[in-house]
Write a structure and sequence with these properties.
The chain has about 190 residues and is an alpha+beta fold. The chain contains 3 helices and 9 strands. It has a single domain, classed as Nucleoside Triphosphate Pyrophosphohydrolase, CATH 3.90.79.
Length: about 190
């Protein structure tokens, strides 16, 4: 999707999905070749004006990887999230960062970490990048060294694998709603 904000110095809000799958005892991380950037990176994209961050992530996952939320667990600091009567609760992002896309434009990115137990049941959407790879961290590091992958992607995946997999709760991703709250208007 095109950027919503097009003037110099503006920020778009984006979502990213960092997906880990265990093969035997080895964590594999999912990256795809971004069509415009020509770099290996995580799945994700822009949050459109008419969608929640979680709904944006759900559609980007399906389009770019083939994964549906019911095929994934999302890493969360706790399983005990509050229940709110008049709001929809979304998962807590693993991290939020702002980065420069070009000299005049920024993305503020909500990054989520996922665990996949299998490869996706569906293919990615037609027209999406068909170069999807499951790599070990050393393989991803080699792709960074060769200039094929983004360094931030390696750094975030390393944090997930070394710090978060054992410490965070694995919560079924479809436990969170992609719907808008409809019963209360302020």
């Amino acid at each position: 999707m095109p950027h919503i904000h097009t003037l110099d110095g503006q920020h778009d809000i984006t979502v990213s999905a960092y997906i880990v799958r265990m093969q035997d005892d080895e964590p594999l991380v999912l990256v795809h070749m971004h069509r415009k950037l020509g770099k290996l990176m995580q799945a994700g994209g822009h949050i459109e004006l008419a969608e929640t961050p979680w709904a944006a992530l759900a559609h980007e996952l399906a389009e770019e990887t083939g994964y549906q939320l019911n095929e994934l667990s999302v890493l969360q600091p706790t399983k005990q999230l509050p229940t709110l009567e008049h709001a929809v609760i979304h998962p807590v992002p693993l991290l939020v960062n702002t980065h420069r896309v070009n000299a005049e434009h920024y993305h503020s990115d909500l990054c989520y970490a996922f665990i996949a137990r299998a490869i996706p049941a569906r293919a990615q959407a037609e027209g999406e990048a068909d170069d999807i790879r499951w790599l070990t961290l050393p393989e991803l590091q080699c792709e960074v060294a060769s200039g094929t992958a983004l360094e931030d992607v390696y750094e975030i995946y390393t944090h997930i694998v070394t710090q978060c997999l054992e410490r965070y709760e694995w919560v079924y991703a479809d436990a969170f709603s992609i719907a808008d709250p409809v019963d209360l208007v302020f």
